[in-house]
């Protein structure tokens, strides 16, 4: 996909990225370079989002729910998300019943 101009000077999509709007007569080379650079940036913005697979390679993906844009991947340095560790539940200590039994035995002995 590239940008080309009609007679009015508006940008239109064409099949070849290398053809860009021609600068006005007498324009410098830097202006034509800027136009080409702008066309490349526009084409890059239209690309599908990229997905970072487990192997670490980037691949186009239209259907995945885990889609990241290239900008997000660059900002994160292509790091994978760390899995959260599950917290272990603490076991409740059982109350000792032996002490209560001893107390009951002592009470019985005292009553007799």
From TrEMBL:
Biased composition range(s): Polar residues: 1-14
Bias type Basic residues, positions: 77-112
UniProt-annotated stretches for the region Disordered: 1-33, 73-112
Domain of life of the native organism: Eukaryota
Protein name (record): Uncharacterized protein
């Amino acid at each position: 996909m590239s940008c080309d101009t009609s007679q009015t000077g508006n940008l239109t999509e064409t099949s070849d990225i290398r053809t860009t709007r021609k600068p006005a007569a007498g324009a410098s080379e830097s202006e034509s370079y800027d136009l080409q650079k702008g066309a490349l940036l526009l084409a890059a913005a239209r690309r599908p989002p990229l997905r970072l697979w487990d192997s670490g390679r980037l691949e186009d993906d239209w259907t995945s729910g885990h889609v990241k844009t290239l900008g997000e991947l660059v900002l994160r340095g292509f790091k994978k998300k760390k899995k959260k560790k599950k917290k272990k539940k603490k076991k409740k200590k059982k109350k000792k019943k032996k002490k209560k039994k001893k107390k009951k035995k002592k009470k019985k002995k005292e009553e007799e």
